[in-house]
Specification:
The protein is mainly alpha-helical. About 65% of the residues lie in helices and about 10% in strands. The strands form two sheets. Strands 1-4 form a two-stranded antiparallel sheet. A two-stranded antiparallel sheet has the order 2-3.
């Protein structure tokens, strides 16, 4: 029972739940950025480089062998697809840049908000009578009522 109790205390801590939410949102954000890279940026890069597609780049170690009689692949091609590596590096750099920009904007906004709070004049509460003044007033009222 101690193990389950400890696990429940661990799992329900606020920082663990916050971390889990961050991982889920980060995964979804990564998919969005990957889509932007694959569907928007890389086609533009391909147009600018004359139709080059990084994912097609490879170094063939052993070519595909096709059976001449059946026209079926007897031995698959063995290749190092370094173009995929380039694509994934571009993905990573753009995801890292996007996260950096989002965090930087949030940090700057937080700093501006803190500065505004610090610069705002403190609201002074109206000063009431001091304790001595109240006691004096009470004493005077008691004297007057006698």
């Amino acid at each position: 029972m101690g193990f389950l109790k400890d696990f429940k205390a661990f799992a329900l801590k606020g920082n663990v739940i916050d971390m889990a939410v961050g991982v889920v949102i980060g995964g979804a954000f990564g998919k969005i950025v990957t889509s932007i890279v694959n569907d928007v940026i890389m086609p533009l890069v391909s147009v600018m480089t004359g139709g080059v597609n990084f994912t097609d780049w490879k170094w063939v170690l052993s070519p595909e062998v096709v059976d001449e009689v059946t026209q079926e692949v007897a031995k698959a091609e063995v290749a190092l697809t370094y173009g995929n590596l380039i694509q994934n590096v571009v993905d990573f750099l753009l995801i890292a840049l996007s996260i950096f920009v989002v965090i930087r904007v949030a940090t700057k906004a937080g700093e501006k908000l803190r500065k505004k709070e610090e610069e705002a004049p403190a609201v002074e509460e109206p000063k009431g009578p001091t304790q001595e003044e109240l006691l004096t007033e009470i004493r005077d009222l008691l004297k007057a009522s006698k």
